Amino acid sequence: MILNTGNRTDIPAFFSDWFYSRIQEGYVCVRNPYFPNQVTKYRLDPQVIDIICFCTKNPKPMLSRLDLIKGYKQFWFVTITPYNQSIEPHVPNKNEIIRSFIELSKKIGSHCIGWRYDPIFLNDYYTIDYHLHIFEKMCQKLSGYTHQCVISFIDLYQKTKKNFKDVQEVNENDQIYLCQKFVEIGKRYHIEIYTCHENETLKTTGVHTSGCMNQQIIEKALDCSLKLPKISEARQGCRCLLNNDIGVYNTCLHGCLYCYANYDRSTVLNNYKKHNKKSPFLIGDFQKDDIIKEAKQVSYLDKQLSLF
After folding, report:
1. Helix (H) or strand (E) holding 21
2. Structure letter (DSSP) for residue 201
3. Which residues contact 275 (CB under 8 A, 6 or more apart)?
4. For 252-283, what is each residue's pLDDT tens digit?
């Protein structure tokens, strides 16, 4: 199975002690975000977990203890954007993140780490030219340490509209132009450009529209083929392997204005007070009305020898 950690919150940045504690305990419990008394218990064992996928804006808190998960295959997405603290109030300095990215890549291998440059939005300061200039500078620094960059354009979810007033979507013509230029820049630095849940017509610009965490990307990280069952889409039209997430919404402390996973800062801080790094749950603990179900966990590794 594939275990995900980063679609609901940023575990490496804020909950690394808890995560490593769960690895040592050998299991983790996750509440259904829509039916909170329904709990799934996952066994943390490399025999049934083919790969652990992380998505973070700051991998640094995890780096000194990576030996604790050396028995697991890993794939990491690290988000590095051009925005300042008025947009991303609690994200570390971008040069520091780039240094951590490079350190992580050296430890796990360049096929096991991807860069996210998303979401993209435009305004009077963050113009097309600004994005292209900063994107190339980042490509220069990350070249050789990753082979892919995922981009996406801002989606105006209700939470986003509430927290990021006056932000505008990127129109189709600007999307096409930016994709074309990003592909050109990426080729110079041997970085392929992928889109995340965007219009398929962008494929004409040279970007990959097959998804940011699809089967092919995971297989490259594993250096092995997968025999996957039919897996439900996280979102309609999304081909990424995003099931089995152990995170919790409304717990990420970065405070990014564009965030889709947080309702507001007050909710996040209240939830964070309920975090106990020794609990099987990221937030809170067992409740008397919990219905606990053991996850069905099987390896998807295709161990048959191929003749081709």
Report:
1. helix 16-25
2. G
3. 15, 18, 251, 282, 283
4. 999 999 998 898 999 999 999 999 999 999 99
